[in-house]
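Table S2 (continued). Query chain:
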Amino acid sequence: MAQFLQKIPGMSYPKGILIAIGGAEDKGAEERKHINTLNFSEEGILKKIVELASKKTRPIMEIITTASSIPEEVGRVYKQSFKRLGCSDIGHLRIFDRQQAESKKTMERLKRCNCIMFSGGDQLRLCSILGGTQFISILQERYEEEYFVIAGTSAGAAAMSATMISGPEETSYLKGGIQLSMGFGLMQNVIIDTHFDARGRFGRLAQAIATQPGQLGIGLDEDTAIIVERGILLKTIGSSSVVIIDGSNVKHNYIADLKSGMPISVADLKVHILSNSDTYNIETHEFKSVGTKAYQK
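Corresponding output:
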């Protein structure tokens, strides 16, 4: 992907890698929801996380299930899945309040690992517990200054951006039908939505971009992810699609003048649909597709 990155003078880019997953990723279970031409047990998202974490040294991973309502079960499933993929040094970092996020033990484990995996669940819970803590400060610093891998699925992906959608579940073309709050700020100028096609969330992401047209909307479907290099170059992996909603050239948008509950009206939103191996540059708004080559054996 390096040839697709054009350095802007004076601009500093993160050295770390982000993997934002739309949820319901293949964990190697016998029965899989998605059936397609790719073997995602062997070529899936979790395997890619291990490969990226292993690029410069052996992978040392921590699973964070703060967002989940069943943290122990989720942590156990991820540990088993990553162990099957060859990652032997993997822990479940239990952070359920802000005191735990600031504890000496948590800081030591964060500084030791080279890969973090945020589980799904409730992104508002995740950010209300971790947001503004020393944990996030160190995470951001390592992502900016080191080759450090941060993966997140569902809520863990949505929380990566500076502005995130925190609810409600339903799609909405009516003003006031979405709620925005602060994320971790690992990615700037984007809003990420997950379970995108499976839960019909185009309207909710479109309204988020109508509200903040300077942002770029990224809709991640299930068992699909983006790998983010230098904070700006997205590469799609997985069994479904990624939708990009670009509001930078909107010419008609009266959402500020509407009363709550009225249907929104927006013109000239630009939409891209990316599938496996397609890339998109956030800075240049350039989309590149590999076509059917990604599916040829």
